[in-house]
Amino acid sequence: MTRVYDLAVIGAGPAGVAGALEASLAGLDVVVIDAAPRPGGQYHRHLPGSFHALRPGALHHGLERFMRQWEALRSRAEILLGHRVWAVERTGGDAAGGTAGAAMGAAAGAGDTADAGDTVDGTVGATTDATVTVRCLAGDREERPRAVRARALLIATGAHDRPLPFPGWDLPGVLTAGGAQALLKGSLVVAGRRVVVSGTGPFLLPVAAGLARAGADVRGVYEAGGRFGLARHPLLAAGKAAEAAGYAAVLARHRVPYRGRHAVVAAHGEDALTHVTVARLDADWRPVATRTVACDTLACGYGFVPQLELPVQLGCATRRDADGTPVVAVDAGRRTSVPGVYAAGETTGVGGAELAEAEGRLAGRAVAADRGRRVPPLPALARRVDRLTAFARALHEAYPVRPGWRDWLRDDTLVCRCEEVPLSAVREARRLGATDARSVKLLARPGMGWCQGRMCGYAVACLAGEDPAAPRRPIAQPVRLGDLAGLEHPPSEG
Amino acid sequence: MRPPYELVGARPDPAFEISVDGRPVPVVPGQSVGAALHAAGVRSWRSTRFGGRPRGLFCGIGVCFDCLVTVNDVPALRACVTEARPGDRVRTSAADSGTAAARAGAGKDTAGKSVAGAGRPGAAGKEPGGESGGDDEGVNGR
């Protein structure tokens, strides 16, 4: 008989680890699942032990704290690293059904109930006799299927970079800001020799500072939204002064220019990046003057996209975050609209690692309380979440993506990298009558390739004239057809 | 010692080699195939189906699938999340073809297409002849 855990946590980043630790300290039998070979998620991505780093925290804020939590968790919970989750199903209780087919049906219908409201009523049934089956593939090459069952589920799957398209953005040498950061934090690889950083949001600062400290010649940081110079950066005004000042000092020491209301609007080169066009932007991000900067690497990012495949599969209600991004709707205990399913971290609204950790703790405590454990109230934790949430909202408001980026595109600019769909094809689809992103996708195929719209979904939605919808992906991770076909006879654990 | 190594005080285990189109590329144990290639100055290792455009790392965290690569004859692995192992044979410049689509397909559309073997015309034209065996292997689920 398969073991049934009290709680399965998907994601071993700040939210997942904090939640799992709280739940296990309260006496629950917890399993933590993550696709990566090491814990940390994107923010606390760190070097493998084989690097024998004496100061692994030199590249991170708060890594030591996270690793202490991880060490505490390791002895108390089952840990499944290198396990990619491709589907979750809920069975028993008041669940809709127990097969993958039902899970897919729920995913297809979930879009209709999206945006159900800003908050979920706290009285939503939290205890349930339903169980959740988490379907994973273990290993980065061999891919052994494995199913994990639990009575409650905490979704802490985080977010990925949100790129914007521009001419040449598919040239080798153009990376997402998170990709450049991942190379450094996870492999000690400096993304390039001469690097330009562009995009919007506070994340550009640690990326640029990290690259400069690691020896890259950072030719400039171009913040599309910043109507403030670095000296008046919103981070400084929001209780993160020390952190922001640290980045500013690094950039100053390495003589890295920081330009607000500037952005890279085109990348150039034959087979690899050789230079970029940097534009001064008006308030709506339309270019008003351009110049050329030579570089071999560009790191760019315009915020983050929460990874919502699994909550959408389960039918969890979503809401719009301050910037229009779909996120999972939760109550104060991080309970989703589906009984027994909780969410924390970026999936419930992008707000950074500190907020994610605090939300994870709230979730872990709520799961334990809902499962009958004695959990004393911790009002300071709730207040901390409120304060950090307000800060996150302020940052969203300080760094909106403005519509003028559309003017960066030419007819032949690829909007969808996978299916190589140029802007002209998207426009043609609109001329044929497509008035929403889904119709554009059906006519012109953007978002139908390998990444399933994870990279272009935001841009395609904007070009179709709507806010991006929550993703409907019945399969959250690529899976071999044989594994899909075998679903009627679920693989035994192990 | 290079700056990032000084920064964190790293004294890594001895490097090993992988072969990239027959050329040796050093790997610090624990690095992904993509990180090792990027560090060695190899910025692209795949051509797109339609435009034949070069692609390498983009998202770097396993989301965008631009960095697909063939390792030890296993096609369509994401280089950025595949940890390199001593002796790995990496083959680049493989056209992103039906082979790649067959192995997975993050959605019904792609999966259905590969089952039916109905790749788009542009893809079929670019597909190296020897790839079809791997295609079937992928579909039948190893």
From TrEMBL, chain A:
Gene3D superfamilies with a match to the protein in the record: BFD-like [2Fe-2S]-binding domain, FAD/NAD(P)-binding domain
Q: Which residues form the FAD/NAD(P)-binding domain?
A: 5-356
Q: Where are the transmembrane segments?
A: none
InterPro entries recorded = BFD-like_2Fe2S-bd_dom_sf, FAD/NAD-bd_sf, FAD/NAD-binding_dom, Metab_Enz_Cyan_OpOx_G3PDH, Opine_Oxase_asu/HCN_bsu
Task: Write out the entry's keywords from A to Z.
Answer: Oxidoreductase
Q: Quick check: keyword Oxidoreductase in the entry? A: yes
A Pfam family recorded for this sequence: Pyr_redox_2
Note the PANTHER family from the entry. Answer: ANAEROBIC GLYCEROL-3-PHOSPHATE DEHYDROGENASE SUBUNIT B (PTHR42949:SF3)
The protein's name in its UniProt record: Oxidase
Q: What is the lineage of its organism?
A: Bacteria, Bacillati, Actinomycetota, Actinomycetes, Streptosporangiales
UniProtKB/TrEMBL annotation, chain B:
User: Residue spans with biased composition (Acidic residues)?
Assistant: 133-142
Instruction: Give the keywords, sorted.
Output: Oxidoreductase
Question: Which stretches of sequence are listed as region Disordered?
Answer: 85-142
Q: Does the keyword Nucleotidyltransferase apply?
A: no
- Specify the species: Streptosporangium pseudovulgare
Record-given protein name:
Proline dehydrogenase
Record InterPro entries: 2Fe-2S-bd_N (IPR042204), 2Fe-2S_ferredoxin-like_sf (IPR036010)
- Origin, by domain of life? Bacteria
The UniProt entry, under Pfam families, shows: Fer2_4
For bias kind Low complexity, which ranges apply?
92-126
- Which SUPFAM superfamilies has this protein been placed in? 2Fe-2S ferredoxin-like
